[in-house]
Amino acid sequence: MGTTGSTAGRVAGKVAFITGAARGQGRSHAIRLAEEGADIIAVDICRNIDTIGYDLATPEDLDETARFVEKAGGRIVTAVADVREAAELKAALDSGIAEFGKVDIVVAQAGIAGMKSSNSLQAWTDGINTNFVGTINAIQVALPHLNEGASIIATASAAALMDAHNKPNPGADPGGMGYMVSKRLISEYVHYLATELAVRGIRANVIHPTNCNTDMLQSEPMYRSFRPDLEKPQKADAEPAFYVQQAMRVPWVEPEDISNAVLWLASDESRFVTGMQLRVDAGGYLKWYDYHV
What we know:
The chain is of the alpha/beta class. Helix content is 41%, strand content 12%.
């Protein structure tokens, strides 16, 4: 993790509401913000979803996030909640606000990748509902509580920026297409939301990670997506293929790389940055597109 930028911390006195916080990027964001003075309201579903071909976080993972946050000097309230259910998120947020009195930062980053899920249309539905509707739910339960100076940060993906016009095998992977579509819709939703919030002094931005070294990436469905030529590819088979996503010579970035961007967008250092589509993609976008404003 990084080090504090000042004695007080770059988000000292602020409260952050983070979805998908039990492990991976969400846990990393919680720790990084806590290191810089924030208190954390952390939620996660903490159970598996049938269409997802890798294990999701557990209650024990969420407890471990809490221990890391406290070790970093932050206070934390945790709740098991499904982002697909706005009422569950509202209850979790209300519990955190009852403890801390407010919320200043929303990090809507809970996400699943349902690719290679037996061509199941339910994988499409679960992906859209978790990634896109879940992002909307997290943001919109927080909106009534946000005041001037608040910051909303949504996690999309470099996949949202890819050219998807060429579909040589339509319908072959509804879960994979649902992932890309959900992330693209997040980008557009936040763009227009940021416009409405700007006059209120509330900022909203999107971060687009490339391959990130989490359980989602290091999973059998993801390995098969990158190595469709193999029936049961392993990490060693997929890792060389992961490089194709980035212009820089790396197979992936680390959760901490995304957390540093989250911290900047959460802090007053970015107080006039809103509506941004911020790529933390090791140059991946540069491989796909010519320059344009």
